């Protein structure tokens, strides 16, 4: 084969541009990325660059638009759509990618403009990017403010929204709960690369054995305080399925705060547990492990294909106690009064896991939150009928919006006098994270784990 291919391979930046163009037309960012990466065979470092550019530009789009607004004569939304995407790519590299020299960021962006129908505007692209370098220099944009020449609004909500690239309404929801300084810490946390935590399966191995085996494969890890099965990977690990112990069912990928939910439920051997929103099943398999795989767990979900992952994990972890049930948990009369414990890990706006989904912050709105809170209340009201007298229900979400958390639980308790909020005992893993109100609210910047809310409710008669 000739070494001079007539069709040079796509450059990573061109691929990122194609992916982002899809995102701006409404595609989910991971689907758009998969689509471009599937078409080509790229060396690992180029794949990583495409991935970083697509996720990064999607995540930081509000900040990048602000820079275009400040540096160009026309506002970002007045620019041709594709030109705006190209400018995002250039500015993203200058502001957030320290390893890319400024000259390379500028030249490749100018080239992108040339190749995608903007030959007449290469001078503008070059000028805008060089203006950024002149004004801001080589600062690391993930932590630094802007120089005063770039005029951020006085309003603190907008300031944080622009600086860290979140919608104003989300910032406001957090400021109301945390104040300004902690909201800024939370924003910074949500823009970091997510950690990967494993949950060791004590039915197949031990914590020490997993840690040692990982170490012999060159992967360092550390325990998480108070969580007996949790192991956090340090540094990059490559494809997770290739790590030792995966095929043997020694561990499952699950964030530490999601592991807390299983401990708060505290299921016991021989019990009947109903997991009302189970797919993809991270918590269902944890419950089985905590019960020594003895008893019965009903794993229900309304979306059948989302349960396939659970089926795979049941096989891989070699569990016997889980039974699958496809259906709407707002209407499953067969479970009335049959559960010793019920888990309702409700569908939510995901405000606690925004670092894992680059475009999630732009997809949720106050209206979607409102709709979700209605669904959550309906689910809680019906699934509470599954619980036997004296039994327990844990309500959990991975969001940080009071309308989906405290409000749902408080209005349930107000309408159901035979239920009480039961705080975890202090010596249990969940007890270490409990709040004075009796529920658990994990703020990610405080505990360095995904944001979560969970409350244990007991049916007293
Ligand atoms: C937060 S996820 C659950 C995550 C899961 N517990 C885990 O740990 O892997 C919420 C789930 O609720 C399901 N769901 C949404 N509405 C539902 C309903 N009305 N009835 C049952 N499941 C529902 C969704 O399909 C989704 O899989």
UniProtKB/TrEMBL annotation:
Coiled coil: none
Full protein name: 16S rRNA (cytosine(967)-C(5))-methyltransferase
Location in or out of the cell: Cytoplasm
Keywords: Cytoplasm, Methyltransferase, RNA-binding, rRNA processing, S-adenosyl-L-methionine, Transferase
Family matches, as PROSITE patterns: SAM_MT_RSMB_NOP (PS51686)
CDD domains: AdoMet_MTases
Known EC number: 2.1.1.176
UniProt GO molecular function: RNA binding; rRNA methyltransferase activity
The SAM-dependent MTase RsmB/NOP-type domain, residue ranges: 186-460
UniProt-listed Pfam families: Methyltr_RsmB-F, NusB, RsmF-B_ferredox
Function: Specifically methylates the cytosine at position 967 (m5C967) of 16S rRNA.
Biological process annotations from GO: regulation of DNA-templated transcription
Family: Belongs to the class I-like SAM-binding methyltransferase superfamily. RsmB/NOP family.
Organism, as annotated: Aetokthonos hydrillicola Thurmond2011
Alphabetized SUPFAM superfamilies for the sequence: NusB-like, S-adenosyl-L-methionine-dependent methyltransferases
Active site per UniProt: 398
Superkingdom of origin: Bacteria
Reactions performed catalytically: cytidine(967) in 16S rRNA + S-adenosyl-L-methionine = 5-methylcytidine(967) in 16S rRNA + S-adenosyl-L-homocysteine + H(+)
């Amino acid at each position: 084969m000739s070494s001079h291919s007539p069709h040079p391979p796509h450059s990573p930046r061109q691929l990122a541009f194609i992916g982002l163009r899809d995102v701006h037309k409404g595609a989910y960012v991971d689907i758009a990325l998969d689509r471009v990466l599937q078409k080509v065979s790229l060396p690992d470092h180029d794949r990583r660059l495409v991935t970083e550019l697509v996720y990064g530009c999607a995540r930081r789009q509000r900040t990048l638009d602000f820079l275009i607004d400040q540096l160009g004569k026309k506002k970002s939304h007045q620019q041709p759509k594709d030109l705006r995407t190209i400018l995002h790519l250039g500015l993203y590299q200058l502001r957030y990618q320290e390893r890319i020299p400024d000259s390379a960021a500028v030249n490749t962006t100018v080239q992108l403009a040339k190749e995608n129908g903007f030959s007449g505007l290469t001078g503008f692209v070059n000028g805008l990017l060089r203006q950024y370098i002149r004004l801001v220099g080589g600062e690391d944009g993930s932590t630094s403010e802007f120089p005063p020449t770039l005029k951020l609004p006085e309003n603190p909500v907008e300031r944080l929204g622009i600086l860290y690239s979140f919608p104003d309404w989300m910032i406001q929801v957090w400021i109301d709960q945390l104040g300004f300084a902690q909201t800024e810490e939370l924003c910074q946390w949500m823009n970091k690369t997510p950690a990967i935590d494993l949950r060791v399966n004590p039915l197949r191995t031990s914590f020490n054995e997993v840690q040692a085996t990982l170490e012999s494969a060159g992967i360092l890890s550390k325990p998480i305080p108070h969580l007996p099965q949790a192991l956090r990977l340090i540094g990059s690990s490559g494809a997770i399925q290739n790590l030792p112990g995966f095929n043997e069912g020694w561990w499952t990928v699950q964030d530490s705060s999601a592991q807390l939910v299983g401990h708060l439920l505290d299921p016991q051997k021989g019990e009947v547990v109903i997991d009302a929103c189970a797919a993809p099943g991270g918590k269902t398999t944890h419950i089985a492990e905590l019960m020594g795989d003895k008893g019965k767990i009903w794993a229900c979900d309304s979306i059948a294909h989302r349960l396939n992952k659970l089926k795979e994990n049941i096989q891989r972890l070699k569990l016997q106690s889980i039974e699958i049930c496809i259906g709407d948990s707002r209407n499953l009369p067969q479970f009335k009064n049959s559960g010793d414990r019920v888990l309702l890990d409700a569908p939510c706006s995901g405000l606690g896991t925004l670092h894992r989904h680059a475009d999630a912050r732009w997809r949720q709105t106050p209206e979607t939150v409102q709709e979700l809170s209605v669904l959550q209340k309906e689910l809680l009201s019906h699934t509470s009928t599954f619980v036997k007298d004296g039994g327990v229900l844990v309500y959990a979400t991975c969001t940080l919006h009071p309308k989906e958390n405290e409000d749902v639980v408080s209005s349930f308790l107000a309408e159901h006098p035979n239920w009480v909020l039961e705080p975890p005992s202090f010596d249990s893993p969940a007890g270490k994270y409990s709040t004075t109100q009796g529920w658990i609210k994990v703020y990610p910047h405080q505990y360095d784990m995904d944001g979560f809310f969970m409350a244990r409710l007991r049916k007293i008669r």
